């Protein structure tokens, strides 16, 4: 092969590489954008949530009328609110508490939320814990909230219905 043939082969490889790169980027962003569409459906008496790419069930809601983001956590005893979000919601803790979590021991402060809503559901006077030092935006919807509902999980889909005992 002479230098001209090497240059021609190099140009072809360069073009093929860029085409593949753009193709992969297109596929990534196309499916990434699709992942949140239709993830949550609200119906009278029930909410259907599809798991995200990490397998978590997330839903938007509100505390005292202010928008928040929940992650469903059946391993959490209480509604857990990061300190950053608690400040934004003007919530203050009343009683200090230490808790064991998957990440170890954390400090918190017990409080109450006047009104919690998600989907078509609303709960009042909900016990919660403010997680001191937590600066993320995601609230953990624990079992003190979830126990008011029946939960069914099938094929990466969680159905939350009004409990028959209410």
UniProtKB/TrEMBL annotation:
One of its GO terms (biological process) is proteolysis. Gene3D superfamilies: Acid Proteases. InterPro entries: Aspartic_peptidase_AS, Clan_AA_Asp_peptidase_C, Peptidase_aspartic_dom_sf, Retropepsin-like_bacterial. GO terms for molecular function: aspartic-type endopeptidase activity. The chain crosses the membrane at residues 12-31. Pfam families: gag-asp_proteas. Keywords: Hydrolase, Membrane, Protease, Transmembrane, Transmembrane helix. NCBIfam families: clan_AA_DTGA. This is Aspartyl protease.
